[in-house]
Structures are given as C-alpha cells and as structure tokens.
Amino acid sequence: MTKTLVIGATGTVGGLVLAEAVRRGADVRALVRNKERANLPDTVEVVQGDLADREAVAGALRGVDSAFYVSPHETNEVELATIFGQEAERAGARLVFGGFHIEDDDAREAAGSAIPAYVPKLELAAFLASTDTRPAMVSITNFAQNDEVFRADIEAGTFPTPLHPGGVNRIDLRDAAEVLTTALVDVSFAAGSYQLVGPESLNGEQSAQIWAEELGRPVVYTGDDPEWRKAFERRLSGQKLVDWIRSFELLSAAPIPTTEAEVATMTKLLGHAPRTLRDYVRDSVN
C-alpha cells in the first residue's frame, strides 16, 4: 500500500486529491495548520505543522512514498515550495505538483516577462521540477469548482467571473484529482509535465447559461462589467484575493482553446471521457 502525504488537504484541490486517494485505499497522511479544524476522514493520519517550518515538513514526509504539493496563497510561496522540494528529495518521496508549470526555459522566461505577477509561481514550479524526486508536474486549467466561491451570486442570478469571449478551457477538478492520485500511487506513472484539460472551452455567457438551465432560473453573465472585481472582494480576502484577481484578469484577456489532441490525452490518462461543466453543475445542484 502506498503511503502518501497530501498538502492542502483542507482546500479545494488537495481535498479532492485526498478524497480520491482514500477512495483507492491509499495510506494517506495530511499536513495541516490546525488539526482541530481539519475535519478529515478518520482513516487519514493528520499531522499539524506549517510549510515554513522545515522540521515539521521533514517529519511529515518521513516514511512516505509520495507527496502531493499545491502552492498556498502566500507571499512567500517560493520559499515554502523550496523547503518542501528539498525535504521531499531528502525523504526519497516522489513529488506530484498540481498548479501551473511551463517546462521550456525560454517559454517560461517569456511568460514571466509578459506576466510579472506570475514569476513566483513559475519559479517555484521550475524548482520543484528540478528536484530529484521523479516529479510529476501537473498543470490545470480553469476549475469548474471555482464557481462555488460565487455560488450565492449565481443562485441570486449573476455569474460574475470574467472569461474571455473566445472561451476558456474549464476542467472539473474531480478529473484532475483522479490523474494526480494515479501519479501518487502508481509507480509506473512517468515523471514529466502534464497539461490537464476539460473537454471544452466556454466563455462567461455560456457558463452562466449552463447554470441557468440546471438551476431552472435566469443567470446573467456580469463578468464583462468593469466593476467585476467587487464581486471578488465580497467573497475573498488577503493573498487569495490578489491571486484570483490576477488570474481572472488573464482569463478575461486571452482565450484558452481546447484541442482534440489534448482531450484525447486527458481521456487516456483518466480512462474515461473528461467531465463537462454541465456534469459538474448538475451534480452540484442535485
């Protein structure tokens, strides 16, 4: 049985990875800041500690075969990832990263020049990719689950997140969690970079229409309103607010198309067709 450590177990991505790993019967350990508030399954070994505490990180990694890392919304995210990558290497653990990674050095440098705010995220991913951990570097497009942050707005009749009119690839994180868990528990899963995608690109109006149809009442797209950031300020705070606004500024400025080849690769990784946004919304509503 694989012993795996999950970072971000109380968050959206890490929580779904943890749930999938538990479902598959893996021996799961979670590093959390507060054990009392974690509310994780009884089968999970919960250890308390902070990613900035090297000793705590080393202890959490001791004895595990693999470890999942998702970067928290912190200003020192590069430092945190560096500590984790170094200690995973010392522990001999296979590292699986979920987030945003550009493998090509020139492309990564160009992206950093074009989007200076993303330089720390690009740097931390590049460092993790360089570790001697057989790293699986998994990039994920726009999450369907992001809509949950604005669920109250959506149910009240507005879809406030800006998405480019040309469409943005949207992925159900349940699919991402399946692939990430496979990378954690299957020793034959090859190291390298993987781009996970959903089956289609959708713009804001299309996303709002899907919600309207599944809820059975009108939902109007308001992400093209110049004041869209105010909806984010009502739902988020701190560094997470900053990160989300930066991300959606990009998602509103450029499309993320979906290719048949990407969907075919994703289908092969999953062993089934990727879920649509409608699949996610329907399951969420019902």
In words, what does this structure look like?
With 286 residues, the chain is of the alpha/beta class. It folds into 2 domains: 3-140, Rossmann fold (3-Layer(aba) Sandwich); 144-169 and 199-257 and 276-285, no CATH class. It is built from 13 helices and 12 strands. The strands form 3 sheets. It has a 7-stranded parallel beta sheet with strand order 3-2-1-4-5-6-10, with helices on both faces. α4 (77-91) links the parallel β4 and β5. α1 (12-23) packs across α8.
Quick description:
The protein is an alpha/beta fold. It contains 13 helices and twelve strands. The strands form three sheets. Strands 3-2-1-4-5-6-10 form a seven-stranded parallel sheet, sandwiched between helices.
Summed up, the domain count is: 2
Q: What is the count of β-strands?
A: 12
Distance between the termini: 35 Å
- Give the uncertain stretches in residue-range form: none
User: Main sheet, how many strands, which sense, barrel?
Assistant: 7 strands, parallel
Write down the CATH class of the largest domain.
Answer: Alpha Beta
Discrete helix count: 13
The ordered string of helix (H) and strand (E) elements is EHEHEHEHEHHEEHEEHEEHEHHHH
- How much helix, percentage-wise, in residues? 40-55%
CATH topology of the largest domain: Rossmann fold
Structural class: alpha/beta
Radius of gyration: 19 Å
How much is the average pLDDT?
96
According to CATH, the homologous superfamily of the largest domain is NAD(P)-binding Rossmann-like Domain
The CATH architecture name of the largest domain reads 3-Layer(aba) Sandwich
> What is the approximate shape?
globular
Strand order of the largest sheet: 3-2-1-4-5-6-10
The percentage of residues in β strands lies in: 15-25%
Pfam families: NmrA
InterPro entries: Ergot_Alk_Oxidoreductase, NAD(P)-bd_dom_sf, NmrA-like
